[in-house]
Amino acid sequence: MTLLQKIALGYFVALMIAASINYIPGLTDENGLAFGIFALDLYDDALHVASALWALVSGLVSQKAARSFLILFGAAYLGDGVFGFFTGYGFLDLGIFTNASLGMDFSMGRVLANLPHLALGGFGLWSGLTVERST
Q1: Rounded to an integer, what is the distance from CA 92 to the centroid of its chain?
Q2: SS3 per residue for 81-118
Q3: Which keywords belong to this entry (predicted)?
């Protein structure tokens, strides 16, 4: 198994954890905010599970599949995190289409809410574009 495949399998684990946050007692507050920062709904959970299954399959199939997953997933999630700064919502869960824009904001709350997608997306894209390029 190549490093890219292992990274993709790591994404499977991380995304399944993200999908389960709402169902672990104590991780959401009385307002339904995970860690008191952001809300996850059924659409977010479905997106995380679908992404996790894509990561699992690509990680098990081949290095080329893992690279494709990391590049495409990375670009999509990184873009979603960037949109979060400009609108307060992402596009992957269709939030920018169903909610009025909250405007650009670089407050700590907005940074923390978008950091998971920025980090996962950025690392995925970087990995897909740079790791094991000679093979």
Answers
A1: 9
A2: HHHHHHHCCCCCCCHHHHCCCCCCCCCHHHHHHHHHHH
A3: Membrane, Transmembrane, Transmembrane helix
